[in-house]
Amino acid sequence: MAVPVVNTYRNGTIESTHFGNLAVVNADGQLLYSVGDPQAITFMRSSAKPLQAVALVESGAYRKFGFSSSHLAVMCASHSGEERHAQAVAEILARVGLGPEHLKCGVHVPLYYTTNNITPPADLKLSPLNHNCSGKHAGMLALCVFHDYPVESYLDYGNPVQKTITENIAYICKYPREKIALAVDGCSAPVHALPLYNMAYGYARFVSPNSVPVNKAKVYSTIYRAMMENPEMVGGIGRYDTALMNVCHGKVLAKIGAEAMHCVGIVEKGMAMAAKISDGARRAIFPFSLEAIRQLGVIDDVQMESLKEFHTTILRNYRDIEIGYLKPEFELVKIEND
Questions:
Q1: What digits encode the pLDDT tens for the residues 209-218?
Q2: How many DSSP H helices and E strands does the chain contain?
Q3: Chain centroid offset of residue 261 CA
Q4: Are 139 and 166 in contact (CB under 8 A)?
Q5: What DSSP designation does 313 have?
Q6: In order of start, what are the domains of the chain with their CATH numbers?
């Protein structure tokens, strides 16, 4: 059962409480720490993107089309729709002979504006290239072209691209393929549900080369290193994943997901974390995640100071007056393993 993890204060009084669950697992499958129910089942949402990119690299398509590490990072991104992001996605599509019209992710106001509280210009032209999931979709399309799979149906459950992605998630997370529940994500691509424990286990194996066969390790490291080397492509200006990976300098792989989902691979410790706010409140996942990372000893006080806006988030009203704050208040429960 989920437990209280983040409180919202107004003038020193708790006004709201967000509940959550969390699992920290090592590459051997040992549950090391938990909060609430580590076996809670939920959808990975965009936290699955690094795992969804495995097929592209493993197949040889990544090498054949000459994609850069920056291209790969944006394929794993929930990017902000900045010019650099849209350009990278356009380049991916061009290299496989496709264009923006082939993207089926839809359009929305780029996250650059919503994240940084900037009013979009009145003449802003919306494009699928600026959709936060366009990189993932471009990667799926590239895999279709490489294998000569149907491009038009690249999002269908039955398309070989989607079947391979689901099989790869089942493999890395050590969770039976037939137990993975499928649904439709906000970008219209399939999304996968499994226990937080298995998500964390998968991320731990993903960033621990000795835990998987050599050929798999090379594929996984290509992906997570691309993300850590290009954190600005994974999120963008003012985004949590970008700030966290910048501050941690190659120590962590971080990927946010909608409905307050977050997965973090802790490279130097060979373990990973999967965290979920039960009510899906985006505002609470940042302090929940960051406080857990702090308690795990991954970042120091100086690094925490540079990330304080995500840890104890200040709340302001429409006149920009400070009226409260969000604060994480929980303790990781250490699991005693024999």
A1: 999 999 999 9
A2: 15, 12
A3: 8
A4: no
A5: P
A6: 3-334 (3.40.710)
For the chain, the residue count is: 338
Asked if residues 31 and 197 have their Cβ atoms less than 8 Å apart, the reply is: yes
Cβ contacts of 235 within 8 Å, gap of 6 or more: 77, 78, 79, 80, 241, 242, 243, 256
CB-based contacts of 43: which residues, under 8 Å, 6+ apart? 181, 183, 185, 191, 192, 193, 257, 259, 261
CA distance 319 to 216: 52
pTM: 0.96
The 3-state secondary structure of 291-303, one letter per residue: HHHHHCCCCCHHH
CA torsion, points 224, 185, 183, 143, in degrees to nearest 10? -50
**Spatial distance between the Cα atoms of 121 and 119, rounded to a whole number of angstroms:** 6
Residue 242, classified by CB atoms within 10 Å of its CB into exposed (0-12), middle (13-18) or buried (19+), is buried
62 token code pair? 């990544």
**27, 211 Cβ separation under 8 angstroms:** yes
Each residue's pLDDT tens digit, 254-298: 999 999 999 999 999 999 999 999 999 999 999 999 999 999 999
CA distances from 200 to 40, 192, 203 (A): 12, 14, 5
Cβ-contact 274, 228 below 8 angstroms = no
Over residues 11-39, the pLDDT tens digits come to: 999 999 999 999 999 999 999 999 999 99
Per-residue pLDDT reduced to its tens digit, 143-178: 999 999 999 999 999 999 999 999 999 999 999 999
H-only helix segments in 53-133: 54-59, 61-64, 69-75, 83-95, 111-115
Identity of the residue numbered 227 = M
pLDDT at 227 over 80: yes
